[in-house]
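Re: the request from the purification team.
They wanted to know what the chain is likely to look like in 3D before they choose a buffer screen. I agreed to run a prediction and write the result into the notebook, where they can find it.
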Amino acid sequence: MNQQYEQELQSSWQERQEYAERMLPIIGKLYRNHAVEILVYGRTLLNASVIDLIKAHRTVRLFEGVKLRLRESWPILEAINNMQLAPCQVDLGRLAYEFHYGKGKDETDLHAYLETELSKVNNKEDEHEPRDVVLYGFGRIGRLLARLMIERQGKANKLRLKAIVVRGGKEGDLEKRASLLRRDSVHGPFNGSITVDEERKAIKANGSFIQVIYANHPSEVDYTQYGIKNAIVVDNTGMWRDRDGLSQHLQAKGAEKVILTAPGKGDIKNIVHGVNQADIKSSDTILSAASCTTNAITPVLKALDEEYGISSGHVETVHSFTNDQNLIDNFHKAERRGRAASLNMVITETGAAQAVAKAYPKLDGKLTGNAIRVPTPNVSMAILNLHLNSDTDKECINTYLRNASLFSELQHQIDYTASTEIVSTDLVGTRAASVLDSQATIVAGNRATLYVWYDNEFGYSCQVMRVVTDMAGLSVPSIP
C-alpha cells in the first residue's frame, strides 16, 4: 500500500514538472517578444523556475479551496500563445480557475472564452514608444531598481535602463559598482551575467549596456552624448527633495522627467501606486514615489477606510536599520540614531502617518505615527491601531483584505498570508508593497489592530517601478 502511494505521488509530481517545463519557454517568449506578462493570482511568472510555477499553482487552493492543476492551465497558455495580443498582464491562474470552476465552467469552446476575456488586447497594436531611464545614485534602492529593469530585458521591453550616475570614482570603482550589483547580502546573487567594460566605462548585464557616468552634480551631465534622450531620471540620493533642487536634473541635456525615491516636499505630488497614480499627468516633470512605509500602509488604510471608515489611528513602524544610522556608536545629528544600529532598538520619528494624507487626503489629520529601528537589515512591520466607524470582527476584516489582495485594484500593493509561522526573513524579495499577517489581526468592536509586513527595499522598489512605468506612459491593462 505504501509503495503504491509513493508511486502515485511520484507520478503526480512528475506530471507537474513536465507541464511546468513545457510552459516556461512560452511564458518567457510571450514577454520577451510581445510584452505579455503571465501571472498566477497576482504573482508574476517572469523568470520563474519550474518549482516557482508549481508553487504558484498550489497557492490557488489557499484562496479558492480548489486545486488548480498545471494540466488545466496548460491549454489556456497554449491558446494565448497563438493569439495576437497587445502588451498586457494576463492572470493565467484566474482565467484557468474561472474556465474550469467559475463563471466559464459551462463553456465548452476555450477559444471563444479567451476571445471574450481578452477582447481588450486581442488583435491590437502595440502603440507604446520606448523610454530611456537613468538611475541617479546607485545605493540600495538604485541597485534593486537596476535588477528589476534588467530582468525585463527583451526586444519588446519599452523601459530601458541606459545609465547610472555616481560621484567621481577612484581606481577600481567600476568593478566595485558591478560587484555590488552582482552580489547582495540580503537579496542574494544577481540572476544572470554581469561584465565590466573598462574602456567605455559601462556595465553589461544580461544584454543591457549600462553607461556609468561620473558626476558630482546634475549640471555636469550631458546625457545626449551617450545617445540618451527624453530620459526619466530616478533620483535615489535624497539630496534634493523639493522642486527647486530636483529641477536641476531637468537642466541636463537629454533629461525630461524626474522621480524621487523619497518623500517630496512642497507641492511635489507624492505617488503611492494603487492609491493615487491617477494623479500622474503627462505634463508632470517631477514626482515623488513617497517612502517605503507610506507605500506599505496607505493601500491597506485606503482599503479599510473605503469599507469601514477610519475615524483615527496610530501607526507604529518596526523598521530595519538603514544606512543613515551608525554601525557603532558615533556622532549623529538626529536623536538616538548615533547609537550602534546592529546592537540597539532605537526609537525615532517617522513622517509616514502624516504622509499618508498626501496620497489619500481622506485621512488627513486622523493618524499619528512613530518608529522603532531594530537590528535587522531588511523587512519591516507596520502596526496599525485603528478606530473604525463601524463594528466588525477579525474574520470579516481578514476576508475583506484577502479579497482585496486578489481581485481589487490594490492586488499588486496588498499581499496576504495565513501562516502562523512566518517571520521577517521569509518576506525578503516580496514584490507587493505590504503583506497582511492575518493571524495576528486583533479586532474588538470598532477597534482593530493589524500587522503589516513590508520589504522596505525590494517591495518599495517594485512600487517605484510602477510609478516610473506610469510616468513613461507605458501602463498596460491587467486581465481579467
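For the purification team: The CA atoms of residues 82 and 124 lie 14 Å apart.
Please add any questions underneath this entry.
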